[in-house]
Amino acid sequence: MDVKDFYYDLPQELIAQDPLEDRSSSRLLLLDKATGDIKHKHFRDIKHFLKPGDCLVINNTKVIPARLYGVKEDTQAKIEILLLKRKENDIWETLVKPGKKAKVGTRIIFGEGILVGEVVDIIEEGNRLIKFYYEGIFEEILDQLGQMPLPPYITHQLEDKNRYQTVYAKYDGSAAAPTAGLHFTPELLQQVKDMGVEIAEVTLHVGLGTFRPVKVENVLDHHMHSEFYMVSKEAADKINKAKANGNRVIAVGTTSTRTLESASDENGVLKETSGWTEIFIYPGYKFKVIDALITNFHLPESTLVMLVSALAGREHVLSAYEKAIEERYRFFSFGDAMFITDDIIGDEKQ
Fold this sequence. Notes:
With 350 residues, the chain is of the alpha/beta class. It is built from seven helices and 17 strands.
């Protein structure tokens, strides 16, 4: 399977640089995964395509302000670091720029000494393990000094940190937002609940590995980075009940999808669990849990385009992307959304 099979040409101006004022006013492309049929709506219309008994699965991870700017203690050279994952206590796996200045033993000063980091090891792909020294509570210091780790394709400054969080974000730990959830408002979620749709919360702390380009020609040679996930008993029970009753399990985002497909047994049954997943979903994969997916538009040749292609078929997905470009949809993290499901014609309720 060639990585080039998942390429599409995106005009630069369609990359959304800012979030919309009203989250739910994003556009929504509905894609019938069986036929490839397409409809154009707005995200707030999602409720017309949901049914009582459906189970909507959301990822309640919270993005930490993971980008830090500091200086080397000895030379005062500028250093930028991105916190990827906490390894133990105050040791974090990080991405450092410029890496060549961050040899083992290098000390980095942040916020005039409120926070000090020391490079203790260099691991795979040149990532650094950094041990932090500080007084007080690390999360509070991070909130004071850190910036939201927006993807490199977003060049505008984010005025409100909360716009790169879902309205249901709870548990600190992500280096990137589960962006499909950014379209929900508290009001829309309440309307969905009032319809009799169950909402199950799972957690997957998103790492940057999800967004890294696939650098090998053969998709099967790509290695996914590991991400930590948790499924509570309450969430497992809701999802299992929906499946047992013949109702749909609808994942909000590729992160919720990867959590469910990692945590279930061969029969698609979930139990309370947590762990690390490196699951890589690409065409040919047989889904065990999810029936439908709410997702954003993803980068060409990314593992996320491969995941949605596994659900709806590569040709249907690339055709839908082509149509979205034609219709001037907004792409990527702050962009518009897709709902991939069955029978979009028959599902709509007025």
